[in-house]
């Protein structure tokens, strides 16, 4: 029987940090690849590849995907929200910078914190935890403030799409935690989302008039491989596994690390300065996460 834990342990924290580390890098990959592969077509290839990988994984592990367990409606809803999230991400990166999109997208924990407790009373946040959530978000906004005021390539259209992506991500988590989806395997949960998006995204790409070309540069091939294998398959499978075993409100607050990892990648690879303000923001996010995950007094 699946064990549900009330607090994050070392395994959960390690997996979450690993996911956030890659997700911080992934937005840069997507935006860099848009110049060669249109956004929705790029997402279609990524999701199709991840769906095949997940299906092969389930065959190898003997995980049933098509058994009747009463989760079809909730699974289709989660899949639709998941697809809407990624449509907003890929389209939004045409109109704004990766770091700006990321900070707006990672408003998703607020949707989780606001809505999940209506169905899962054990996940209701206390005053100090709300303070931690707000502190973590304030750290992200502070770190990216310079990009908000002077960064090129940002538009209101990109900001709106990023906010919608964050909302759809948060609502996907709410549907999972408030329905029977939390009781099924992480593989089947992810399959609902990948498979539905895999069917819809090529149609959306054609509807938007995107040009499909099958001649890719080595960089584009590497980008798609990383987005598919590490991003859409491994990291999302780990995320679904965590959602089934740990409190969603405490998991979701970790996503605030992602935009800060993106800034750190820029400092390390693009030789951008890691300012004292950035380091202060990292400390603020870390403190917020500690407050959200602090065990209640006995």
TrEMBL record:
<keyword id="KW-1133">Transmembrane helix</keyword>
<feature type="transmembrane region" description="Helical">
    <location>
        <begin position="251"/>
        <end position="270"/>
    </location>
</feature>
<feature type="transmembrane region" description="Helical">
    <location>
        <begin position="220"/>
        <end position="239"/>
    </location>
</feature>
<keyword id="KW-0472">Membrane</keyword>
<protein>
    <submittedName>
        <fullName>DMT family transporter</fullName>
    </submittedName>
</protein>
<feature type="transmembrane region" description="Helical">
    <location>
        <begin position="45"/>
        <end position="63"/>
    </location>
</feature>
<feature type="transmembrane region" description="Helical">
    <location>
        <begin position="75"/>
        <end position="95"/>
    </location>
</feature>
<feature type="transmembrane region" description="Helical">
    <location>
        <begin position="276"/>
        <end position="293"/>
    </location>
</feature>
<dbReference type="InterPro" id="IPR050638">
    <property type="entry name" value="AA-Vitamin_Transporters"/>
</dbReference>
<feature type="transmembrane region" description="Helical">
    <location>
        <begin position="127"/>
        <end position="148"/>
    </location>
</feature>
<dbReference type="InterPro" id="IPR037185">
    <property type="entry name" value="EmrE-like"/>
</dbReference>
<feature type="transmembrane region" description="Helical">
    <location>
        <begin position="189"/>
        <end position="208"/>
    </location>
</feature>
<keyword id="KW-0812">Transmembrane</keyword>
<feature type="domain" description="EamA">
    <location>
        <begin position="158"/>
        <end position="293"/>
    </location>
</feature>
<comment type="similarity">
    <text>Belongs to the EamA transporter family.</text>
</comment>
<feature type="transmembrane region" description="Helical">
    <location>
        <begin position="160"/>
        <end position="182"/>
    </location>
</feature>
<feature type="domain" description="EamA">
    <location>
        <begin position="11"/>
        <end position="144"/>
    </location>
</feature>
<feature type="transmembrane region" description="Helical">
    <location>
        <begin position="101"/>
        <end position="120"/>
    </location>
</feature>
<dbReference type="InterPro" id="IPR000620">
    <property type="entry name" value="EamA_dom"/>
</dbReference>
<dbReference type="Pfam" id="PF00892">
    <property type="entry name" value="EamA"/>
</dbReference>
């Amino acid at each position: 029987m699946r064990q549900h834990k009330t607090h994050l342990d070392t395994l959960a924290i390690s997996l979450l940090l690993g996911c956030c580390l890659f997700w911080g890098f992934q937005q840069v990959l997507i935006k860099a690849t848009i110049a060669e592969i249109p956004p929705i077509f790029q997402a279609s290839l990524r999701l199709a590849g991840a769906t095949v990988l997940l299906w092969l994984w389930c065959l190898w592990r003997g995980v049933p995907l098509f058994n009747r367990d009463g989760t079809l409606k909730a699974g289709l809803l989660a899949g639709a929200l998941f697809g809407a999230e990624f449509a907003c991400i890929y389209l939004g990166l045409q109109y704004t910078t990766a770091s700006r999109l990321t900070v707006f997208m990672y408003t998703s924990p607020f949707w989780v914190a606001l809505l999940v407790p209506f169905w899962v009373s054990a996940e209701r946040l206390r005053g100090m935890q709300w303070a931690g959530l707000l502190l973590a978000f304030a750290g992200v906004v502070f770190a990216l403030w310079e990009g908000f005021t002077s960064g090129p390539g940002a538009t209101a259209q990109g900001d709106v799409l990023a906010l919608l992506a964050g909302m759809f991500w948060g609502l996907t988590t709410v549907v999972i935690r408030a329905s029977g989806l939390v009781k099924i395997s992480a593989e089947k949960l992810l399959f609902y989302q990948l498979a539905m998006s895999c069917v819809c995204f090529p149609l959306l790409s054609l509807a938007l008039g995107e040009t499909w070309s099958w001649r890719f540069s080595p960089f584009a091939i590497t980008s798609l491989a990383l987005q598919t294998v590490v991003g859409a398959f491994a990291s999302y499978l780990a995320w679904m596994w965590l959602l089934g075993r740990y409190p969603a409100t405490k998991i979701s607050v970790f996503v605030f690390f992602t935009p800060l990892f993106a800034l750190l990648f820029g400092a390390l690879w693009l030789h951008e300065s890691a300012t004292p303000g950035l380091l202060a923001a990292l400390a603020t996010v870390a403190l917020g996460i500690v407050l959200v995950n602090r065990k209640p007094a006995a």
